[in-house]
Amino acid sequence: MQTAEIRQRWLNFFEGKGHTVVPSASLISEDPSLLFTVAGMVPFIPYMSGLVPAPYPRATSVQKCVRTLDIEEVGKTTRHGTFFQMNGNFSFGDYFKKEAIAYAWEFLTGSKESGCLGLDPQLLWVTVFQDDDESISIWRDVADIPMERIQRRGMKDNYWSTGQPGPAGPCSEIYYDRGPAYGREGGPEADEDRYIEIWNLVFMQYERGQGTGKDNFEILGELPKKNIDTGMGLERVAFLMQGVENLYEIDQVRPVLDLAAQLSGKTYGAVVEDDVRMRVVADHVRSALMLIGDGVTPANDGRGYVLRRLLRRSVRAMRLLGVDTPIFKILFTASKDAMKAAYPELETDFERILKTAIAEEETFLRTLTAGTVYLDEALDAVKASGSKQLAGDAAFLLHDTYGFPIDLTLEIAEEAGLTVDRDGFKSLMAEQRDRAKADAREKKLGGTDLSVYSAFRAKGVTKFAGYEELATGAEVLGLIVDGADAKHAKQGQIAEVILNETSFYAESGGQDSDAGFIVADGMQLEVLDVQKPVKGLISHKVLVRSGEVSVGQKVTTQVDADWRLGACQAHSATHVVHAALRQVLGPSALQSGSYNKPGYMRLDFAWTQALSLETRSEIEEVTNLAIRGDLAVSAQYMSLPEAKTWGAVALFGETYDESVRVVQVGGPWSRELCGGTHVARSSQIGLVSLIGESSVGSGSRRVEALVGIEAFRALSAERALVARLSESMKAPKEQLEERLAQTIEELKVAQRKLAAVQASQLATRIPELIASAKEFKGSKFVATNLGELDSVDDLRTLASQLRDKFGDTSATAALFAVIAEKPMLVVATTITARQHGIKAGALVKVASAILGGGGGGKDDMAQGGGQDVSKIDAAVVAIEGALNA
RNA sequence: GGGGACUUAGCUCAGUUGGUAGAGCACCUGCUUUGCAAGCAGGGGGUCAGGGGUUCGACCCCCCUAGUCUCCA
Q: What is the pLDDT of residues A380-390, one digit of tens each?
């Protein structure tokens, strides 16, 4: 049975049991502390914990998941994959153990004709938590499983909790027996390779307290609402049902594996190391495909870095298989074709996905080339030193600084007949890990407690009236002062206000929160910030300007009209700039983040190179033409699939409800899912002026722009600047550029001439200086103070010329000058003088010490300086003394 | 979030106890020659990423900022 079919059967089955089918959430987790969606229940956490009331009593999903903790194990075992799909059914205070077990049994063992999987009941084993007799009796009841195939296990295996206070409870797991060929008898307790876990049923029925680890905590009591959370590994069931050996050989993965074999000319199943490499390629390419599909782009940190590792490890594995040409185009196409039955959006987005993957492949190939040069040098050095081993720090430097993978280093070193100090490398890696971990621990002390909001959220959502009006009547439902529930807040205090309804826009979707006031008779609150701490709940952070605010009070929310207009202009401008970017650069220039507030907007987007000035102008032009076009801006609600067929751009990393809001500018010209506030027509944006373009890391760029009156003011200020320049340069602005270039050129010529004149003027003094030479111990000595000079270069040139004039007589020149009010000297010696043991460097040291400074140089030429100009004569005497000694 | 490396002529890059910034290619001029990266001679071209500090003196040492590459979490 094809994987896509198992998936569809699952959804159909649970829909038939009254479950709401929830589409897979993005791999990009909404929870910022999680890199990715790592389990099927992640999108349902707020409902499980009771923070947000569940919109449905029971739900089912097939969730895309990525886990890279065990990335090193991929390909070596049957169980580790970085991308997998988790089938789940969930109950939020609705059904409990009995139904959960019955559904699971029915779906696994029911006939294929009835839409189930038709597995042989004799091959299924179950485990339960040691004290959970209730589950055992249900299993006996509904499934008639013999006691021999039910095993009790402890906290470590069969008790679930988040690791923190909150819901917890026992689990029951279902295993599939692959037969005696795969291991020993005795059920999952004995052998988890023969008995494969396929489904975990979690019964959340208790509230856990403080504690550490998996088994060291206290149970506080029963939960008021008991939940069911189950997860069936789709890949595991698929590989068992397809009669293959592991998850790399199922229909959704195998084609890429075969392609890796074909491209490298190797046979799958022949050499263990090569098999692992082929599986790595098959697994990683699929994970990368799905991540890019969900909008992740390669980067140096966070999610992007995980993606980069997957892509680079794929290239590396192919190299080790002997393929060093670009291969992503064929591999990704094959993976896409294997996955598109379940995820049709991969086909429509494939151009963008492939472009992203290939760009990373190219940059990595460049990195490898650079690393190879360095490695070759290092290996030559090792050979030259007579050693047989490349040091651990050299291998680490290659890996850490040049991004050159360690196993390629090992391979290339081996070809050169050398070994690598692996232990040294490993310990350096461990050091780096410890550094990063220690840092992460330090920064983690910021987990905010949201429980104070859950009581308010339980009463319902805050109604947002701000799309239609700037002011609205409301009632104060709650106050939070210093993180705690409060009844009143007095003048001068800062408090959070929860209302039943508000016209204030809370910061989201990149748009800054509204400014304004909340007022009532004799009371005024200045709104400082507006946030949505919990989905559906709006909290206003306010300063009590006058009077006192109390729970139950009737108030009016008044958004500052000027502020809001600016905010609308900026947010609409963001959409227009985004559309212009995609029009000019192509559809892969997808927004990855944005921020806007009155007068200003910035937009981060996926792009690999800096934008040229011409491209920036073009984007600015397209943007402002769209503004001049007076396009209608509208917002309407529709279902997510409907929005997708409209071609609306969904911003990755955001999660959307069943009903989404689509904001259009000029109909299809720009369509984005967005909850922000906008102007009514594009012309109201006024003006957009790009002020900057920069990098936010490899593969991601940022544009910044001023919007509306702010844009005008900035341009106006620049115009004034040009006018002032024009005036001081005495040239009309059209000729300003030319005039400036000309002036700079003239200045350069004049400086050069001046330098030449000064040099020749100094050169005229040479005969006079030679004539003034004294003689010490048979060697000539010239010393003079040239007075004020511009640079030490002149001094040096003259000293050098003087020395040349002396030819092969023994002579020393010591020239002094005052440069920038400090005494400087240069000493030059002829070859003959040096043969007599006269050293310029030593003489400079003697003289500069007297001048109150220091100096040095070589035997032939040296320079130095000091602080005290009046000591020059004394310095000359000191040199003469040294020559006489 | 924490590390490491890099930024020098139009391009590719050298440049150690801190003491006058270089090479190859490209460019300009002249000669020679006219067959595949032509040769010879001469020449122009540099805020050594930007800013600050230490020093008599910084491409070099220290600090900050920006850009680029890279590893770890």
A: 888 878 888 99
A400, closest nucleotide (Cα–C1'): B71
d(CA A801, CA A811): 12
Structure tokens at A266: 């190797």
HEC-encoded secondary structure of A197-219: EEEEEEEEEEEEEEEECCCEEEE
The spacing between the Cα labelled CA in A865 and the C1' in B42, in angstroms, equals 37
Q: How far is the CA of A758 from the C1' of B32 (A)?
A: 39
DSSP A601-667: EEEEEE-SSPPPHHHHHHHHHHHHHHHHTT-BEEEEEEEHHHHHHTTPBPPTT----SEEEEEEETG
**Residue appearing with tokens 């602080």:** A867
**Assigned token pair, A705:** 């722009």
Note the CA–C1' distance, A509 to B73, in angstroms.
27
Distance CA A175, CA A153 (A): 13
Cα–Cα distance, A138 to A142 (Å, whole number): 6
pLDDT band at A821 (very low <50, low <70, confident <90, very high): confident
Provide the pLDDT confidence category of residue A447 given band limits of 50, 70 and 90.
Answer: very low
Q: Which amino acid is at A443?
A: K
Of A36, A26, A586, A75, nearest in space to A285 by CA: A75
CA distance A47 to A546: 39
A314 close to A358: Cβ distance less than 8 angstroms? no
More confident residue, A592 or A770: A770
- What's the Å distance between residue A300 CA and nucleotide B24 C1'? 35
pLDDT of residue A699: 67
| CB A651, CB A671: distance < 8 Å | no
Whole-number Å distance between alpha carbons of A303 and A322: 29
Residue A426 has pLDDT above 60, yes or no: yes
Q: Measure, in angstroms, how far nucleotide B16 C1' is from residue A409 CA.
A: 29
Distance CA A706, CA A573 (A): 9
Q: Whole-angstrom distance between the N-terminal and C-terminal Cα of chain A?
A: 102
Among all protein residues, pick the one whose CA is nearest to the C1' atom of B3: A432
Instruction: Please check whether residue A143 is in contact with residue A196, taking contact to mean a CB–CB distance below 8 angstroms.
Output: no
Q: Where does residue A486 rank: exposed (0-12), middle (13-18), buried (19+ CB within 10 A)?
A: middle
**Of A519-528, A606-615, A772-781, which range is least confident?**
A606-615
CA dihedral for A492, A494, A498, A502, sign (positive or negative): positive
pLDDT-derived band at A567, boundaries 50, 70, 90: very high
Distances (CA, A) of A237 to A179, A193, A208, A289: 15, 14, 32, 22
Pick the more confident residue, A254 or A447.
Answer: A254
Complex ipTM more than 0.90, yes or no: no
Determine the length of chain A: 885
Contact A765, A782 (CB under 8 A): no
> How far is it, in rounded angstroms, from Cα A59 to Cα A74?
31
The distance of Cα A575 from the centroid of its chain, to the nearest Å, equals 23
Q: What is the pairing mode between strands A811-819 and A779-788? A: parallel
Within 7 A of a protein CB, which nucleotides of strand B?
1-5, 18-20, 45, 55-57, 66-73
CB A680 within 8 Å of CB A569: no
* pTM given for the model: 0.79
pLDDT of residue A123: 95
- In this prediction, residue A698 carries a pLDDT of 60
Q: What integer pLDDT is reported at residue A371 of this predicted model?
A: 84
Kindly state the average pLDDT of the residues A71-84.
85
pLDDT digits 0-9 by tens, A201-260: 999 998 887 776 667 778 888 888 899 999 999 999 999 999 998 999 999 999 999 999
CB A794 within 8 A of CB A762: yes
